[in-house]
């Protein structure tokens, strides 16, 4: 059982890191949007391609299309924190119990 616990702990750690990196991508995108970035810049294009699907779904579900301020990055970060606490934390606890 200890092998399964180690594998589960590794998966939880990797998922945690992916969520952490994605959260920083969202934060960087939000900060860059304040300075009117060049849309042809490859970094700006990457940030938009990486975050638009998630942020669009949040905007669509919460009906934030007509608001002056875009709260979707804040909601996305809160969802990432929830996933880190609920999912990653639960996986790590389960892995420890399997040891």
Task: Offer a concise description of the structure.
With 99 residues, the protein is an all-alpha fold. The chain has three helices and no strands.
Question: Mind sketching the topology for me?
Answer:
Layout: H1 2-33, H2 42-62, H3 72-98
Helix pairs in contact: 1-2, 1-3, 2-3
Task: Describe the protein.
This protein is an all-alpha fold. The protein has one domain (2-98). The protein is built from three helices and no strands.
Q: What is the total domain count? A: 1
Mean pLDDT: 92
Low-confidence stretches: none
Any idea what the radius of gyration is? 17 Å
- The helix-strand sequence is HHH
Q: If helices are DSSP runs of H or I spanning 4 or more residues, what is the number of helices?
A: 3
Terminal CA distance reads 7 Å
What kind of sheet is the major sheet?
none
Q: Give the overall silhouette.
A: elongated
Count of distinct strands: 0
Structural class: mainly alpha
Strand percentage lies at under 5%
> Portion of residues in helices?
over 70%
């Amino acid at each position: 059982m200890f092998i399964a616990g180690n594998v589960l702990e590794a998966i939880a750690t990797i998922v945690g890191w992916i969520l952490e990196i994605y959260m920083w991508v969202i934060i960087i995108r939000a900060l860059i949007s304040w300075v009117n970035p060049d849309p042809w810049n490859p970094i700006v294009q990457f940030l938009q391609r990486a975050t638009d699907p998630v942020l669009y779904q949040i905007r669509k579900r919460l009906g934030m299309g007509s608001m002056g301020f875009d709260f979707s990055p804040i909601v996305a970060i809160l969802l990432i924190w929830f996933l880190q606490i609920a999912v990653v934390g639960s996986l790590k606890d389960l892995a420890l119990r399997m040891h």
